[in-house]
Amino acid sequence: MTNKRLKYAVAIISGILFISFITGFDKSKTGLTKQPQKVPTIGVLQFVSHPSLDLIYKGFVEELEREGYKDKETIHIDFQNGQADQSKLSSMSQQLISKKPDALVGIATPAAQALANQTTDIPIILGAISDPKAAGLVKDNNHPGGNITGVSDQSPVEAQVKLMKELLPTLKTIGVIYSSAEDNSQSQVDRFKTVAQKEGLTVKTYAVPSTNEISQMTHVMTGEVDAIYTPTDNTIANGFQTIVSIADEANIPIFPSVDTMVEEGGIATIGINQYDLGVQTAKMVVDVITKKKSPSDTPIYTFQTGDLVINEEKAQKLGITIPKTIKEEAKK
User: What superkingdom does the record give (predicted)?
Assistant: First the structure.
């Protein structure tokens, strides 16, 4: 009797041990297959705080979230703002790269150049660079060939010049103020000059090395032109309110290339939506971190159309009549 009880006890214990072993094995297998996934890290360097650049970053963050990458949950965004200080851009680039992110984003040309100077290995996505090739960031805009690709904010100049002539039928001379320190600006000015001259306009250019010279140069310019054009230029964007103030005194209209700057005092433009630039930048980041695409063979993305934006209040102050057809089409 005792032997039978002993055998039953041994059998029960063996069964329990066997079941425990199988269950533990299954759990260990489950644990192996459900390892926590690495959260991607994106380093973002923005040149300066400005409504247009801030809107690019907003579009970038919100599109990432729509794609399933929410900051501090499924992705980590390390954001730095250089506040237009070149030495800060350099040190911030080093900081971002030292953390070995999965990708880097440069918002505006100086920020992108600062990142590019520090690494040729980590993928860099350009957020709003007018001409990456002219800025020395890629070998070719269609075939970048390195660790860099991204989005161009190149303006639809032909459409902008046509708009100027529609609003100002007697327009003859237009002044272009730009930064001599920004590589992209000269190429934009050359392009604008070519298009405007084909349309019979005289173009006068006014280069400034920094924001400190904007006031003096604008005073000179307003005495020599019928209207002002500002390219996509970070230095000019920083001093835009100075240009607006002086141009208003001289009753000279400003046609900015960036849509958000119409609200800041320009009269009208056909410009690339800054939020959409951020959205496209995010899409390209996702393609890179998921290994769907490589920067080296991903062409620079260029928008083919822009938004027509007008400032009716400014037009009234300047005594400019906006045609009904433009009013109906435009965002105000």
Answer: Bacteria
| DSSP structure class, residue 41 | E
Domain 41-153+274-299 fold is: Rossmann fold (3.40.50)
Cα gap 147→103, rounded to integer Å? 10
As given in the structure block, the two tokens for residue 173 are 């001379």
- pLDDT, one tens digit per residue, over 304-315 is 788 999 999 999
Residue type, position 148, single letter = I
**Structure confidence by residue, pLDDT tens digits, 222-281:** 999 999 999 999 899 999 999 999 999 999 999 999 999 999 999 999 999 999 999 999
* Helices assigned H by DSSP within the chain: 2-33, 51-66, 86-98, 109-116, 157-167, 183-198, 214-222, 234-238, 240-249, 260-263, 274-289, 312-318, 324-329
Q: Which of the following CATH numbers is that of domain 157-271+307-329: 3.40.50.2300, 3.40.1190.20, 2.60.40.10, 3.30.1490.190?
A: 3.40.50.2300
